[in-house]
Amino acid sequence: MMLYVEDLSIQVRDKNAKTDTTLVYDVDLTMERGDIVGIVGESGSGKTLTALSIAGLLSRHNMERKGKIIFEGINLLECDRRVLRKLQGNEISMIFQEPLNSLNPLIKVGKQVEESLKIHTTMDKLERKERAIKALRDVDLDNPEAVYNSYPHELSGGMRQRVMIASAMIISPKLLIADEPTTALDVTIQAEIVNLLKTINKESGTAVLFISHDLSLVNTLCERVLVMQNGYVVESGICDDIFHHPKMEYTQKLVAAIPKNPFVN
Amino acid sequence: MIGAVLTGMVVILALWGAIKTPYDPMAMDGAAKFSGISLRHPMGCDQFGRDIFSRVIVGVRETMLISASVVLIGTFFGTIIGTITGYFGGWLDEIIMRLNDAVLAFPSVLLALVIIGIFNSGKYQLILALGIAFIPSFARIVRGEVLKIRNLDYIQSVKLYGASDFRIILVHILPNLKTVLMSSVLIGFNNAVLAEAGMSYLGMGVQPPNPSLGRMLSEAQAFIFTSPLTAIFPGIIIVIMILGFSLLGDRVGKKS
Amino acid sequence: MEEVLKVEGLCVEFKKDKKPFLAVNNVSFDVKEGEIMGLIGESGCGKSTLSRAILGIQKAGVSGSVNHKYKRPQMVFQDPAGSLNPSKKIGFILEEPIRVKGHFDKEERQRRVLDMMAKVDLDPALLDRYPHELSGGQRQRICIAAALMQEPRFLIADEPVSALDVTVQSQILELLKKLHQELNLSILFITHDIRVAYSLCDRVMVMKKGQIVEMGPRDEVYFNCKDPYTKSLMDAARTKYSS
Asked: Which positions in chain B touch C146 (Cβ < 8 Å)?
């Protein structure tokens, strides 16, 4: 098992009110290499917090986390910070909703794509550049050399998200966490990004944990899905089953709320 | 919390100063000249044998009154100017804001000195001078906020209802300036305290023998080594005042 | 059938890096009485500028003609947080449109506010709350209610459900449908979501780079479009939601 999450709970402590609020309750999740799993939920469901804690990005200060997150045999909740940092650089990558905020506006895109190679490998400049350009080509960017030398604001939203995927994939991680990666993009671009994630998963065997509020989108991409509501996983299983035969009331509501697709009977 | 306590202390002192002082702050007592801390004179006496404690609390009162008036003038006119220029924009905005920039380009104390040079020195002249010097910074802050609010959807909605510009400004924009005004008033108050102390120190504000914190510091300068008490207490009070308001301002800023 | 809105040769010109740039380029269309007209376009295509020009909020650089049959069309905006005055209670916000008009006394105004709360299925207790105390869905209901207070016959809704969760989204769409029928309201519905437009609109038009590239009855545009850009939009929707 590559990733094994058991009874993950996340509490946040409000210093002023001196109260604890639990935002995520007892989440269980397992992923093998090459899996694509979705987490679906509305705002406030705890899906992003779950993803962030798997990526090891939640601040340890005011977030109390219980349970286990075991990635390749290492419990991320208890391991040393250095071990965590190494995992983050080599094995786990994450992309976010708004690619413009995830890129430094003052640094050329290519340098940012190379960043993790610089930190975690001993490659020299030329090698790194070669790898970065290859990574940009792998995410289907035309003319990767030009993209390498441009600044984030010179690219379109879709291109920026491809750049983010390239920089996440350059270390060939075992797990890619994608938090609403298409929400800020136009429909035509969304479809392309989803297809790109599919291809990446198939070709490199990277497992994808896909977070979204859009059940139908998750259904086109993922094999399995967790449906979250108010911090709880209310239903989980094979995507098609849940999409077509939801058991829990909330999931039924969620499925019913999806606007009817004019192109499917 | 600490900010509120410190500010509370200063305000109580000022109120005390407004009602009654242990001694007449102007009464001289040759025998008590430079006397140290004692039960009769908790902060000692100055070079004329005047009770420093009495002078400090009256000074706090004066300083607070002056600073509050200055901030009031600055906020009032700054808000009017900032709201009108920010809301209507166009050439009016250009002209007024360039004038504003010109005024802002002078250090406010220098500007106040010029105004006092024209109107003579004195408490009310000082209030007027500092007040005018404070207007541009408030105008700028308010204008920025109004520019932001004016493009919000709810203002567009109200425009579609057919509300007049006057109503939009008065009912829909002004109340939303509250938070940004609150924190800039507190910061402005601090600057006013410092400016008042500075001006009085230069002899441009409160005239002797009336006490103000800046005035007292200026008079104490000559005796600072022989009799440091005359400088220490007014100084400490200024520090407490400013610290208190800064902390309060921080809190207001964080809340919004 | 008559038009509540007739737009002819509308252009909106902006200056971008000192070069003139047509955000809306020669747009002509109409909205018929009692109809929901959809305007579909991706971000930056000029659809919001178009709506602002129609309502007269955008004045600079506008040319062409816009004719409204009725006075005072109203608008519902995308972000329900930004379209409510944060320092006013809901009751005040709902009363404002008729207070501004000045036709009714206080009692009548309050009666109308209560009526409207019932129409948008909200608890009258909310009238005493501030906008930030409401959920996103409740806020959007309030925005719709406020827009309807002056009893407009024509409403422009600019992405009214894009900022909402799916379950809330469907409720708001249902509400719009209901109000449309009850009040015989004509709506120009602006969205980037192809499925949402399908569920609501009678006719749709597709906008790209300031121009209308396709316009017609809904099914005609969805299943029988001629324009290549419209085709690519529909294909994207088809693959994205393939199941």
From this structure: 157
CB contact under 8 A, C241 and A261: yes
Residue B136, domain CATH? 1.10.3720.10
- The CATH classification number of C1-73+155-243 equals 3.40.50.300
Residue B118: count of CB within 10 angstroms of its CB:
8
In this model, does residue A147 exceed pLDDT 70?
A: yes
pLDDT, tens digit, 9 for 90 and up, residues B58-82: 888 888 888 899 999 999 999 999 9
Cβ atoms of C237 and A261 closer than 8 Å: yes
Confidence of residue B113 (pLDDT cuts 50, 70, 90): confident
> Among all residues of chain C, which has the CA nearest to that of A258?
C166
In this complex, which of A42, A190, A253 lies closest to C240 when CB atoms are compared? A190
Q: What is the domain partition of chain A in residue ranges?
A: 3-91+173-257, 102-172
Rounded average pLDDT over A84-105: 85
Residue pair C80/C14 in contact (Cβ under 8 Å)? The answer is no
Q: What is the pLDDT of residue C1?
A: 58
Query: Nearest to residue A258, comparing CAs of C160, C169, C176, C242?
Result: C169
Contact C150 B175 (CB under 8 A): no
Q: Classify each residue of C132-151 as buried b or exposed e, where b means 16 or more C-beta atoms within 10 Å of its C-beta.
A: eebebbbbbbbbbbbbbbbe
Positive or negative, the CA dihedral B164, B166, B169, B174 is negative
CA A171 to chain CA centroid, Å, is 15
Q: What is the pLDDT of residue C182?
A: 92
pLDDT at C243: 47
Q: ipTM value of the model? A: 0.85
Positions of chain C with pLDDT lower than 70, given as ranges: 1, 240-243
The overall average pLDDT reported for chain A is 87
Domain, as residue range, for B184: 45-255
- Beta carbons of A259 and C198 less than 8 Å apart: yes
Structural domains counted in chain B: 1
Nearest-5° Cα angle at B65, B60 to B70: 125
> Measured between beta carbons, which residues in chain C are less than 8 angstroms from residue A219?
243
Can you give the pLDDT at residue B30? 65
The pLDDT tens digits for A215-251 are: 888 888 999 999 999 999 999 999 989 988 999 999 9
Collapsing DSSP to helix, strand or coil, C87 comes out as coil
Give the helix ranges, DSSP H, for chain A: 47-54, 81-90, 99-102, 109-120, 125-138, 144-148, 157-169, 187-204, 215-221, 239-244, 249-257
Across A76-88, average pLDDT: 85
* Contact flag C83-B157 (C-beta cutoff 8 Å): yes
Residues 165-204 of C with CB under 8 A from A: 165-170, 173, 192-196, 198-199
pLDDT-wise least confident of A127-131, B9-13, C161-165:
B9-13
CATH superfamily of A3-91+173-257: P-loop containing nucleotide triphosphate hydrolases (3.40.50.300)
* A19, pLDDT greater than 80: no
Neighbours of chain A (3+ CB pairs under 8 A): C
The one-character DSSP state at B169 is I
Burial of B102 (0-12, 13-18, 19+ CB in 10 A): exposed
Indicate yes or no: CB of C143 within 8 angstroms of CB of B162.
Answer: no
Alpha carbons A255 and A249: distance in angstroms, whole number: 10
What is the torsional sign of CA C203, C208, C213, C219?
negative
Take residue B243 and report the two structure tokens written for it. 């610290």
Per-residue pLDDT at C213: 94
Which residues, other chains included, contact B251 with Cβ-Cβ below 8 Å and sequence gap of 6+?
B3
The single-letter DSSP state of residue A260 is: P
Contact (CB<8Å) A187/C196: no
More confident: A51 or B255: A51
